[in-house]
Amino acid sequence: GGDLTGRRVLVTGASSGIGAAVCRSIAGCGGSVAMMARRKPRLDQLHEELGERAVAVPGDVTDLDALDGVVAEAARRLGGLDGLVAVAGRTMAGGIVSGTPERWRALFELNLLAPLAAVRHAVGHFPDRGRRDVVFVGSAGAITPLPGVGIYGASKRGLRAAFDSLRLELAPLGVNAGLVMPGMFETEGLTLDGLEIDGEVPDHDFPFFVPGAGPADPAVLGDAVAFMIGLPEGV
Q1: From CA 148, how far away is CA 141, in angstroms rounded?
Q2: Engineered SS bond to 114: which of 61, 173, 191, 227, CB 3.0-4.6 Å?
Q3: Which tens digits make up the pLDDT trace of 159-217?
């Protein structure tokens, strides 16, 4: 990876999967991370693993009343922020005609509203110059039609639409914006514990992988994000 010495990055969804991988990669490249997630014991474990450059800031990204304060605490703990990687989200599978609108709303609040709210509060803590980054973790599900991922895909395609405008909004400030759209990675979201099933999942026989392949290690994604935010200023 590149050199992230001196960089101070808030990572949401930091307690597992892609979020934890991003924290490991940033810390491994010399950067500092404020790790935000609901599960404080998991954050404490990561802090023990990664050392003093990784600080835990427990919080729920969907608690909009508290989010501004949690982001401010992250900035205080790191002595400022110059990056945000919004990872927090979850997967859902099920049909639209058999699903539960209340659960869809909760998914939209987590996958779409929360990352935008995090940007809204984080950018105000960025300095006026130097390399600064906002990175969203979207999904290939935003652009790959499959039966049973309509609601999830809508949340991630909505995030992509917001990103397209946000990039133009941040460009005059010199703030970089990135969107990572992973396919299948080995995370809790793929397990029966982590995958939310809502309504009936329609049958289909679309292949997810080429023969012999399977979900990838999220460490690869962590390194990709660290590379993105480690690019020289002006790139």
Answers
A1: 11
A2: 61
A3: 999 999 999 999 999 999 999 998 887 876 665 556 788 988 888 777 777 888 888 88
Q: CA-CA distances (angstroms) from residue 90 to 111, 165, 183, 188?
A: 7, 23, 14, 9
Measured distance CA(143)–CA(200) in Å, rounded: 22
Contacts with 136 (C-beta within 8 Å, 6 or more apart), sequence order: 86, 115, 159, 163, 177, 178, 179, 180
User: How far apart are alpha carbons 210 and 226 in whole angstroms?
Assistant: 27
| Catalytic-labelled residue, pool 152, 176, 221, 230 | 152
How does pLDDT run across 38-64, given as a tens digit for each residue?
A: 999 999 999 999 999 999 999 999 999
151 has which bridge partners? none
DSSP, collapsed to helix, strand or coil, labels residue 136 as strand
